[in-house]
Amino acid sequence: MRGKKRDISRNEGEETKWEEPPPRLSRMSLDVNDVKFNFRDDLVTHHTNEYELTQRRPGKDAFLVVRRGQTFQMTLTCDRPYDPRKDELRIIFSTGSTPQPTKGTLVQVLVSEDSLTEQWGAMVVKHIDNDLQLEVMTPPFCAVGRWNIKVRAVKKGAESGSGTKVYSHPRPIYILFNPWCKDDQVYHHDNGLLDEYVMNETGKLFNGDSGYIAGRAWNFDQFDDPVLDCVLDLLDQKGFPASSRGDPVKVARKLSALVNSSDERGVLTGNWSGNYSGGRTPTAWTGSLAILEQYHKTKSPVRFGQCWVFSGVLTTCCRTLGIPTRSVTNFDSAHDTDVSITIDTIIDENGMPLSEYNSDSVWNFHVWNDVWMARPDLENKEYGGWQALDSTPQETSDGLYCCGPCPILAIKKGDVSVPYDGRFIFGEVNADRIYWKLDGNNLKMFRIETDSIGKYLSTHRPRCWGPGELTNPDLCKDRSWQDITDEYKYSEDITHSTLFKDSPPLTAHK
Q1: Which of 169, 366, 460, 478 is the catalytic position?
Q2: Whole-prediction pTM
Q3: Is position 183 within any domain?
Q4: Residue 381 needs a FRET pair 20 to 30 A away by CA distance; which of 127, 317, 406, 415 works?
């Protein structure tokens, strides 16, 4: 607005009023009025179009969900055309409760005419009147979660802080792990397998025993609302720092602790008593959504779960963040309480088990998870790939009921020192069963079984492979069954059992 001209018809002695123009810098600086995203194209290229929260629904806004290490589009609507010679724009990304540049949770990106790198960046693609179309890059190691966006506009050459205008977008965007990006730690080269281990919303969890295996249908529903928000809120509420959320090893390990309620009032309470009053019997659950919906609403542990329920929920939590995940069942699964890699049974002189000494046990089946990721934290780089992860509360690890992730190749090789919890997981699939006789104060070993633990490790067969052949219908009649025992352990073709002389008969044991 221009200032009014002086009225020369007035007497020289009269007071003359002026309408002052706004400061010159403010008048010339750019003002960002709106930010829009290209939902139609980016949701498809980022494999995020299945997320329910990306759709506009009655009473709910649509949110952009993208994957890290891959470009997405932004359009800035300004009050005048952008002039790169005079205008400077910075996009400010922040995540977590206390964003900090040194932690990688507060980032300022200068809008540029140059090409993008694999770091944070924003490149001008097109000018159309007052609209400025940008291509934005996030690095393949940035934290996953909800990121807030601001745009700061300033006149080039202005003093620091003067004339700055900031536009704050009212809704965050979601940035997830990207298993389709070669530079992401969770990258997998096979798109068909990613369709199974990230995108598949249904599957089967296997149960039974080593003589008969059956599949239980399970709905993972990782794209349904409020699953993604529930998982991110869970990490927020339990104090898991945003600065650690770029590392899938740390994220997966934390989730294995938070899916059970044993330490931090996480999602599920385990119950093996047979008395399920005050909750639902574990066999009543058919999917993860109802459990996560209830937890998200009440912020209280859901009752009740057993191993397959914990595994199904953990699959959902990992897949919704973009970590390739499968549920795995181990038959004749050892629970080695003292991590001795032996399952010890002590009997009296009459062959009866002494329960007060027998804390180890063998479950007819136990279900956990495998998550796919590289392990740059380990010296042996071939230990990338499937990592065993278990959310069922069995034994504590680093003071919490969590387990893994541990490379299954290390388990197969017997490299039990590899983090995390390699010794315990090795025992689950490959421990020796040792029987002892207590005679007075003397304890004598009388039988060893080296091949009775860890049978028919099973998972859901990827859809891209088609139905499997019924090679052993007496064992399992389900064509979606896949036996992955050879990924966890070497073949045990020979029966390894030693019975010592003068041993009493074993009349009863669990």
Answers
A1: 366
A2: 0.90
A3: no
A4: 317
